[in-house]
Every structure is written in structure tokens, then in C-alpha cells.
Amino acid sequence: MTGFDLRILRDARHVLVFTGAGVSARSGIPTFRDALGGLWSRYDPASLATADAFRQDPALVWGWYQWRRAQVLAARPNPAHLAIAELARRVPRLTLVTQNVDDLHERAGSQEVIHLHGSLHAPRCFACARAYAGSDAEPARVEEGERIEPPRCLRCNGRIRPGVVWFGEALPERPWREALAAARACDLLLVVGTSGLVMPAAQLPQVARQNGAKVVHVNLDAEPADGATTFTLAGDAAEILPRLLLQMADDQAGP
Ligand code: APR
């Protein structure tokens, strides 16, 4: 771990872990912007990840999210998710904020995961916003690009939409408030597997830094780092995070 002093993690009082699609990559869930498999290299976000797209073609949009949900249900948490869940047991306080709409953090054992961009597993009515728990929202086998008519709300007969935050939509208030509070309170921010391009979520590292926290980026790509308050651990989160935990254990085991 070039230039990163493990004591920063070992002595942290409140760690904020902020994750993006890269943390689920090793679980086989495509990221959005990676050159090869990124979803946005194959699909235009405006044609799938907006309320207008859903109004224009609800079956295409609902089918696409059902395809993504089926992928998540077939996936398993990877060592990066497991390491973050384990880290919460090793430091005095850990807050986990994710941009991901999968439930792999929860399935790895993380508690109270703050989802800034919603969840694939929380469909709701597009008209009245009532949560929808109908079994017809559970994806069976879904082909990529398959059109599926969304179910209808039992209360108002509106179309059921994915429970994710679309481009142009506001973040859910409480998760965003909690994430900002954690960014202001933490003394160490671990940014794992995000391109940091989508606002306002991408503000969190700046808020943390302004409040005196140290920031460690874990990403395939090396991020700019001053080696004093910001550090970069370039590589696969599914390898880097478990190694960090092992080093913490060795360190705490002492000579
Ligand atoms: N380990 C660590 N980092 C990785 C790995 C990995 N195995 N694989 C990919 N990455 C990094 C990439 O280098 C990239 O920086 O993860 C990041 C993925 O970036 P994006 O695909 O842009 O995903 P994300 O940052 O989560 O996107 C943010 O954009 O489209 C919206 O709502 C969507 O929540 C999403 C938001």
C-alpha cells in the first residue's frame, strides 16, 4: 500500500465508506462507465434511466431494470463487500453510503446501508409512489433488452416503476442528509469503486476533506493524492480491501 500509513485506518474513530459500481464489479455486475463492460457504453442513459424514458416506453425501461435486478439476484457479494462488512466490526464507528442499487452490501452483512440512488428491490407506483410488493415484480428469467409491461399499482392502477433515482430526479432526502452528516463527522473516508462523476453524491469526498477527514481512494485507476490527507490505492477493491483488513489484523496482533 504505497504511502498509506495503516495507522490512519487503525486509529480512525469514524470511517465513512462511500461505494460505487466498482465495488460490485467482481460480483459480475456491470459498472456504468468502464470502457469495456460499462452499461453506458451499450445503452444511452437518457433512453433508460429517466422518468421521460419510462413515460415514453414503460415496457422497455421496466424490462431493462428487471434484467438488471435478475443479474443482482443471481450474483453474490464479493470479497470487497465482505471486507467492508468486516471493517465495521473492527473500527469504533462505520457509516456505509452507496450509489449502488444492488443489495450486495446487505447480503455481505453490512447493516444500515445508506442508498443514495435507491434500490432495484424497492419498486413503487410511478403515480402515487406507494411501494409495490407484488410477486410479478420479482424478475424470472429476463433477456437483456426484453420489454416487459410493468405491473399496476393496487391502489391507483398507476404503472410500477423501479425504485431507483433517475437522472434529473432528486436524491431521497433522508439518505442524503445522513450521508452529508457522516461526511462532516468522519475522520476517514474510504471511496471505493466510483468514478466520482455524478452529483450530488460525488460531493461527499470534498465535504469530508473540508471537515478535516483523510480520504483514501480505492479504484482500478490511481486518483490524484497528496500522500498527506488524500491517498490512492490503485487496484481491484476485491483484493485491496481484504489485504487492508489482513494488515490491520497483523498490525493489531503486534510483534
Ligand atoms: N475495483 C475498484 N474499482 C473499480 C473496479 C474494481 N474491481 N472496477 C471498476 N472500478 C472503478 C472504475 O475505475 C470507475 O472509477 O469503479 C468506477 C465505476 O465508475 P462508474 O461506472 O461511473 O460507476 P459509479 O461511479 O458508481 O456511477 C455513479 O452514475 O450512472 C449513474 O446512478 C448511476 O450510481 C451510478 C452513478
Automatic annotation (TrEMBL):
The active site is at H117 (proton acceptor). It is an enzyme of class 2 (transferase). Its cofactor is Zn(2+). Zn(2+) binds at C125, C128, C153, C156. Substrate binds at Y65, R68. It holds the Pfam family SIR2. InterPro entries: DHS-like_NAD/FAD-binding_dom, NAD-dep_sirtuin_deacylases, Sirtuin, Sirtuin_cat_small_dom_sf, Sirtuin_class_III, Ssirtuin_cat_dom. Its main location: cytoplasm. It comes from the Bacteria. Keywords: Cytoplasm, Metal-binding, NAD, Zinc. It catalyses: N(6)-acetyl-L-lysyl-[protein] + NAD(+) + H2O = 2''-O-acetyl-ADP-D-ribose + nicotinamide + L-lysyl-[protein]; N(6)-succinyl-L-lysyl-[protein] + NAD(+) + H2O = 2''-O-succinyl-ADP-D-ribose + nicotinamide + L-lysyl-[protein]. It is found in: Cytoplasm. CDD domains: SIRT5_Af1_CobB. Its EC number is 2.3.1.286. One of its GO terms (cellular component) is cytoplasm. GO terms for molecular function: histone deacetylase activity, NAD-dependent; NAD+ binding; protein-malonyllysine demalonylase activity; protein-succinyllysine desuccinylase activity; zinc ion binding. Binds 1 zinc ion per subunit. NAD(+) binds at Q99, N100, V101, D102, G193, T194, S195, N219, L220, D221, A237. Belongs to the sirtuin family. Class III subfamily. NAD-dependent lysine deacetylase and desuccinylase that specifically removes acetyl and succinyl groups on target proteins. Modulates the activities of several proteins which are inactive in their acylated form. 2 residues (Tyr-65 and Arg-68) present in a large hydrophobic pocket are probably involved in substrate specificity. They are important for desuccinylation activity, but dispensable for deacetylation activity. PANTHER family: NAD-DEPENDENT PROTEIN DEACYLASE SIRTUIN-5, MITOCHONDRIAL-RELATED. This is NAD-dependent protein deacylase. It comes from Pseudomonas bharatica CSV86.
